[in-house]
Amino acid sequence: MNIVDMCIRHKIYKLEFELDLEKWNDIDPKIEAVVQGNWESVKFLNDQGDALNQDMDNIPDNQGGIYMFLLKPNIIPNKHIYILYIGRARRKMEYSLRKRCKTYLTDSRQMIAYMREVWGRDLYIDYLPLNDDELIEQVERELLRVIIPPCNTQIPEYNITVGKDEKVLRGE
Predict the structure, then answer these.
(1) What is the 3 state secondary structure string of the chain?
(2) From CA 35, how far away is CA 102, in angstroms rounded?
(3) CA dist list (Å): 98 to 104, 129, 137, 153
(4) Distance separating alpha carbons of residues 84 and 70, to the nearest angstrom
(5) Which end of the chain is more exposed for a tag (fewer CB within 10 A), N or C?
(6) Euclidean distance between CA atoms 70 and 48, whole angstroms
(7) How far apart are CA 79 and CA 132, in angstroms?
């Protein structure tokens, strides 16, 4: 006897977002000023979804910084956007923004693989070049704290458990 899960499609495509107005209004003004800078955007995968988009080579190879994976289905152009993941590339780790962002093509972490495999053709990377590693750390930490992206597994002020089929957030 075969058992068919009629809700599997719903489960596969479901992500939960926590939207915390108090945290948005509590962002560190210094960090808020930094993130008002010049963000650039590139499509992550090619149109077939099986390789990096050639525009990934436009990401700076001589700078660190902050990057975000955004889901942009463009149903309503430039308005239908979800921040899925926020990361950093520190220069002291000998990563450039380009090298770090390209590693996500083969990243095997559960939430990263899920993000890439489910929405890969609609993923974009927005990035903000920065060279001060201490500032990069501060910006990433603060953005994670106030935005709470659903595919990050380490968020300040939260314990996150990622199981086989679930993600649980608990405030500390």
Answers:
(1) CCCCCCCHHHHHCCCCCCCCHHHHHCCCHHHHHHCCCCCEEEECECCCCCCECHHHHHCCCCCEEEEEEEECCCCCCCCCCEEEEEEEECHHHCCCHHHHHHHHHCCCCHHHHHHHHHHHHHEEEEEEEECCHHHHHHHHHHHHHHHCCCCCCCCCCEEEEECCCCEEEEEC
(2) 22
(3) 11, 10, 17, 22
(4) 6
(5) N
(6) 18
(7) 31
Amino acid at 65: G
Structure tokens that stand for 75 in this block: 């149903």
Please name which of 84, 172, 168 lies closest in space to residue 126, comparing C-alpha atoms: 84
HSE-up of 109 (CA within 13 Å, CB side)? Answer: 12
What is the phi-psi region of residue 141: left when phi exceeds 0, alpha when psi lies from -120 to 50, beta otherwise? alpha
Phi, psi of 42 (to 5 degrees): -140, 150
All domains of the chain in start order, with CATH = 15-171 (3.40.1440.10)
pTM: 0.84
Q: Which amino acid is at 40?
A: E
C-alpha to C-alpha distances, 126 to 10, 70, 170, nearest whole angstrom: 28, 7, 28
